[in-house]
């Protein structure tokens, strides 16, 4: 008996300091957990809080054991919750970055703040009677803005005037690939089509590689072609116009509604440009494939419209653009819409103008805004 008593006292003397140490650790851990708990709860999710409550409930069931063990388990459980919450706070949920649309030059200049009688979505508009040159409607018509693929009307005019053989085969090269905007094309490098087919796709479907190939294969190359574009603009009196390349992908291709009305009038006089620009669709054979192209202006398929020439354009700097020659209510009209806000708004603006012209009494005065 005495040996057992001695042995028990020896064991107690050995474990008593260890128990005090464990108790101290538990109390310190509990104190740290109590201090950090509010921050952890603020950064943690509701799911983490539920887990904490579950762990606390589990710890309460263990109260049958010794006080020291219970304190240790509670402190460890609490500390575990704190660590999990802190980890959650350091790893916020992923968010998809919002990239705002790039404003057009017209938006930056505040042109969309100018009101007009027809509430057009285009910041620039001009409607001219082709026979009398009477301005029926104008809105910011002197503003000089990027014109996007309206550029291709000048490209087509030069190709037609040059009298180059339309059956000559042209091949798309790496030089024709858009490196500025990264626009796509179904005309892959190595595709060979006639010059006539390239011109058709450029005017009707606004095919950028086709337009660039037309300029690149012009006598003297692309530099000579661009120089001739600007010379032709000056000869036509388009003093607000400048061209940097033949596709319109560059925002440096700029003009005004007044100048573009002049260009539409001149190109409408060319039967080839009238035919190709108003073609509803076109098929081209590329190797073993047949590619189907549609006109970028859906109004050419609308039986209520009589369109003699048209061209659309879009880059973010220019907004949605549209020029047309059309007969409305027995009048030959030239319409110019630049920097329209919205995918279909330029078409809607053309419809608004047509309905306005059709309802116009013969004695009605032309509509102008303050900046016209």
Sequence-ordered SSE layout with sheet pairings:
Elements: H1 2-43, H2 46-61, H3 67-90, H4 105-108, E1 122-129, E2 135-139, E3 145-146, H5 151-162, E4 169-171, E5 192-194, H6 195-204, H7 208-216, H8 221-235, E6 254-255, H9 257-268, H10 271-277, E7 281-286, E8 289-294, E9 307-315, E10 319-328, E11 331-340, H11 345-358, E12 367-368
Parallel strand pairs: 2-12
Antiparallel strand pairs: 1-2, 1-11, 3-6, 4-5, 7-8, 9-10, 10-11
Helix pairs in contact: 1-3, 2-3, 6-7
Summed over residues and divided by their number, the pLDDT gives a mean of: 81
What count of helical segments does DSSP give?
A: 11
Q: What characterizes the major β-sheet?
A: 6 strands, mixed
Strand content: 15-25%
* Helix/strand order, N-terminal first: HHHHEEEHEEHHHEHHEEEEEHE
Termini gap: 117 Å
- Measured as a percent range, the helix fraction is 40-55%
The dominant shape is: globular
Low-confidence stretches: 1-92
Radius of gyration: 37 Å
For the largest sheet, list the strands in their spatial order.
Answer: 9-10-11-1-2-12
Q: What's the count of strands?
A: 12
Structural classification: alpha+beta
Please characterize this protein's 3D structure:
- The protein is α+β, with helices and mostly antiparallel strands and 372 residues long.
- It has eleven helices and twelve strands.
- A hairpin with a 5-residue loop joins β1 and β2 (135-139).
- α2 (46-61) packs antiparallel against α3 (67-90).
